[in-house]
Design a protein that fits this description.
3-stranded antiparallel beta sheet, Rossmann fold, 27% strand
Length: 247
């Protein structure tokens, strides 16, 4: 069942999860490093959630940043943050699958967007929507689950990083991947869907992207006295990063 971020306190729990060490020292560190210099660029953050990356991109020097998300509650949280700490960011409730009118963003980012595609057709629909928002020569950067974890036996224990993975019995397209985010006072269950790397590359190619590349995550710092803390994560990363350009 697709996670509904408008229900209960799921959006608030997801916002809380951004403080987990793997999210700051692996996910955010890897994503922002791969994105690189955004000085003066027009940036669209798709599936922006409560605005975590949206604000980071604006603070990194982007000339304009807009965040969109299909969840009304996520956008509400993002707008609340903008009210408290104004950065000039516009947030909209919008479905990434829709084809936008001519929009000329220099960069489109979408962390944890494509993981909600249950079929190749849905994946292509998402990529079509993303392509419609980019200018020619623009770049797309995204984060997805690492499909190669399905080949690991046994599956690594990621609990020390703050989460658990539960995989379907077979690596078939659309198979559910359950991520349990282990928060201080609760556990947030999120359901994503398996797609092989070839499916991502095919969808990007089909929708007009080029220069498809896969990147493994990097990490920033290890806890004091634990120099090997990230070793398991780096050897068996739970997520990967993808980027491509619109010629």
């Amino acid at each position: 069942m697709v996670t509904d971020y408008n229900k209960n306190r799921i959006a608030e729990q997801y916002q809380q999860a951004k403080a987990q060490s793997w999210r700051s020292h692996a996910e955010t560190y890897s994503f922002m490093n791969l994105i690189g210099d955004v000085e003066g660029k027009r940036v669209l953050d798709v599936a922006c959630g409560e605005g975590h990356f949206t604000r980071l991109l604006r603070n990194a020097g982007a000339a304009e940043v807009i965040g969109i998300d299909i969840s009304e509650r996520m956008i509400e949280l993002a707008r609340q943050q903008e009210t408290r700490q104004p950065l000039g960011i516009e947030y909209r409730v919008e479905d990434a699958r829709t084809v936008a009118a001519q929009v000329d963003f220099d960069l489109v980012v979408g962390a944890w967007l494509l993981v909600y595609a249950q079929t190749r057709a849905e994946l292509v629909q998402m990529c079509t929507g993303l392509a419609s928002r980019l200018r020619s020569g623009g770049r797309l950067v995204t984060v997805v689950n690492n499909p190669e974890v399905y080949g690991l036996d046994p599956l690594p224990d990621y609990r020390k990083y703050g989460f658990r993975l539960s995989l379907a019995g077979r690596a078939v397209e659309g198979a559910p991947t359950k991520i349990s985010l282990l928060l201080e006072d609760s556990t947030l269950e999120i359901e994503n869907y398996y797609m092989p790397i070839a499916a991502y590359e095919s969808a990007f190619t089909q929708t007009g992207f080029a220069n498809f590349a896969v990147h493994k995550p990097k990490v920033s710092i290890a806890p004091d006295g634990e120099p090997d803390f990230w070793d398991d994560f780096l050897e068996y990363p739970s997520f990967i990063l993808l980027d491509c350009v619109k010629p």
